[in-house]
Amino acid sequence: MGKTLVYPKTSSNTVNRYKDRATYDLGPIHSIINSSPVLHVSFSPDPNDPFPAILPMLGQMGSFEYPSADINEPLDCYLHGYVSSRIINLSRSSDSEGLPVCIAATKIDGFVLTLTPNSHSYNYRSAVLHGYATLVTDAQEKMYAMKLMTDSVIPNRWDNTRVPPDNAEMSSTSILRVKIVDGSRKNRTGGPSDEKKDTQRSELTENIWTGVVPVYETFGEPIPSPSNKVKEVPEHIRSYVDSTNESNRAYAENVAVNKLPSKSDTN
């Protein structure tokens, strides 16, 4: 088994509260980014603006230089944006290192209900990355990133559409490549954690329900468009919807009772 690669601990990414819930391993961090439909990307829009900006964006981890790189290996984060958006313009005009950005993603796996309001919690998985964003100008790399992100929505979707995009479509879309400097992942699993002073009081334990309500993303039945002429939902959609619904449910239910997945789990 190869060596586990980790991000360096810095003042930006070191977890201080509940340190035992944190990991700096590349794979678990990248998996949260890749399984989150929306990433929240923050940056400083202007030295004279006191407020940071934050945008919901589509993104995926990948490596154009090494397309076969594993999720546990060093990867860039590609972000999809409109050609004239503020973050694109700032990245275009930034220095050679790029625009400093922070990328965050969170998945909720359960509501943890306890005897007292103060100890209620979530089961969750969260990841934060820091890096420098630059505009992708190479046509092949841009196409690589667009395929990467299209297939992150539904696997094999790129090959089941009209491809490649035409010149107008390519011109209206910009891709940012974020060179990652550091990152961290934090998660909570398991059931309620009540204090002994409360668990020993029968008037509480006999009248207040405690436990975990599993929370997981569920895809509904695909609905055809008015212009659709394909009678059956294609297998690449059907199989993904069914298998992901099952795996999401199983994950949330398992972590509620601390049946933890392996480190290589991609959820």
From TrEMBL:
Region (Disordered): 181-203
Biased composition (Basic and acidic residues): 193-203
Domain of life: Eukaryota
Gene3D superfamilies the record matches: Electron Transport, Fmn-binding Protein, Chain A
UniProt cross-references to InterPro entries, sorted A to Z: Pyridox_Oxase-rel, Split_barrel_FMN-bd
Positions in coiled-coil regions: none
SUPFAM superfamilies: FMN-binding split barrel
Matching Pfam families: Pyridox_ox_2 (PF12900)
TM stretches of this protein: none
Protein name per the record: Flavin-nucleotide-binding protein
Species of the source: Polytolypa hystricis (strain UAMH7299)
